[in-house]
Amino acid sequence: MVESTDFFMQRLLIGLDVGGTKTAALLADVNGKALAETAVPTYTTTPEALLSTITRAVRAVLAEVRATPRQIECIGMGVPGLVDPATGIVQLAVNLNLQRYPLGPAVSARFKTPTFLENDVRTAAVGAFAYVQQMEPVQSLAYVSIGTGVAAGVILNGRLHRGHNGMAGEIGHMIVEPGGERCNCGQHGCLETIVSGPASVRQLIAAAPEMQTTVRNAGDVYEAAVQGNAAAQAIVQRVGQHLSRAIQWLVMMYDVEKIVIGGGVTRSGDPFMAPIRHELAQLRQHSPLATALLGEEKVHLMPPDYNPGLWGAVRLAVNGNR
Ligand SMILES: [Zn+2]
What is the CATH number of domain 125-301? Predict the structure, then answer.
């Protein structure tokens, strides 16, 4: 009985990854041990609908271990968009249908607990940093997320590097092909228009229209490449070339110790990484500079069983705005 009394006194941390289609929650104790995890569909019709989504996710993880909202010590949240961590205001999150909305204070009020939020990819970078630090005492890294969107988060001197607008690492919107395909951001030829999941699918269907019914996501593109489909192989190679260059920029700009790659597209594993590793090896072959800065141990693939977005959100709950 003493044990159960202890548990009901236990302080708990909640990490949330609020996405346009689903919202995931991770419940951890104050020592960072995972206790429960869940995901619920995100409703974005109104800010109130989004708050209900978050409430549902939080209640679901608490229910799994029969804990109560009063036990929550702090909540950390990753949000896809432009956010102000100091005030908890979401300036713009198109996928969540939010503009200048005080999401942090609203969640705080609902659970009567401090809440910290940060851009989702920057949050995942914090999670990736925690993951790498379990193995190596690094002080810097860049986490590159390749999914529906493409972005990076940068950790320098052990801390998240936000930049003036909190946008440091938005490499998905660097123009790599002037005059290329129009991007959601309004520019043409952004990196994202070539290497994101939807971009791979679009390029394959354009090259091989007969595959329209069979290719739904980037995993299908990589699978087709493995099966020997020449059009898919050409796209996979093009993606690898562009991503190896993006990795090189990040290393040259920030001189980080590690590059960690994650996100939905990377779940294909080896077929995804092989073209990138090949391109980096080519760079090293001709350049002592590349050999010095882009060694084989530089680039890591995030294992699929570790969710950097959720663990980063738990770290936010631990650290607050520090
Ligand atoms: Zn763009």
Answer: 3.30.420.40
